Amino acid sequence: MSRNELSVSELTMQIKNELESLFPLVRVKGEISNFKRHSSGHSYLTLKDEQAQIPAVIWKNTGSRIGIKLQDGMEVIAEGRLEVYPPAGKYQLICSSITDAGKGQLQQTFALLLQKLAKAGYFNPERKRKLPPIPETIGIVTSPTGAVIEDMGKVIERRFPAVRMLLYPVKVQGGDAALDISRGINYFNNPADPQHKPDVLIIARGGGSMEDLQPFNEEIVADAIFRSSIPVISAIGHETDITIADMVADLRAGTPSIAAELAVPDRLDLIKTVENNQIRQNSSISSKLEGAQIETNSLINSYAFNRPLIQLQQITGKLDELPELLARSVKMKWTQNASAFAAANQHLALLDYRKTLERGYALVKKEGRFVTRSSKLKPADKTELIFHDGSVEVSVSGKPEH
Questions:
Q1: Global confidence as pTM
Q2: Where are the alpha helices (DSSP H) in 123-266?
């Protein structure tokens, strides 16, 4: 093979290298034809206009991120890179994104982000938090000029002037507005001064076109709202305007003024509630006191409560009778003892040996002991005869008879 001759493969590879390096990223507007989704998940189509056509491929992973349903006849804007496919000897567009040219880029971007955030759970109702019933501090992220902040201030001043308002001034439209708004949300969640952390956060701006409201459709703002530890009220545009910020927020208000009404209670309603609660409390306390008084009276008049008093009165009565009973008992005991004593004296009198001696008897004592037998006496014994009126000493002169 000569030096100037190239094989088909060599030529094709040179074309591939040159073409792919020249067109690493292209945006092509055209009409879809011959659209086919393969069982593998890849999609194949042709983009054409009146004078030319180009084959295109959407790989499975890319197709899952496209938020529109593709079909023949649809005019789209495809973004991707050119690739040469050597086996077929043709070039094709490898698509990285496709948007509907008829709806506009902003709407397509909105739809794609909406799908992404919904899949990530940013709009789930269960993550929505309730607002505090009586906030002490409200943080507001909005423009420092214009009717929005003025109207919100008037509503809050009228409804609940005790609340403190903190403003983080931001741009509400323009290229860097989304970053500015997210900074405001993040600041209130982690303020330099802890006293600047509010109980509720309001993000607000007036009405405008879709382009004007675009900062509130940016992912950086949605992410800041989603990660906020403070409940967020979103009030963007008019009631008919719906932004991604509205859908991520814990509560959406139709207008900034409505947001201010939702954020704070009405002081007149609070005063009325306090008065009604006081009336109910007083009535409840009076009812409980009356009930307690009835129960107390019933208890005081009950037999069980009065039984100790009755028993005490009975004991007191017995104590009053006790001296008389004691006197009668002592007298009766004394009488009984006196009678017993008299009977004992009479009995002792009957047993007194002196009475017997008065009748002519005598007692014989020998050596200090009474002698009761004659055999105990011997002649010449010294004895003592005791009579009722005295005693005499005698001597035994003869032997006693037995």
A1: 0.50
A2: 147-159, 177-189, 219-226, 244-248, 256-263
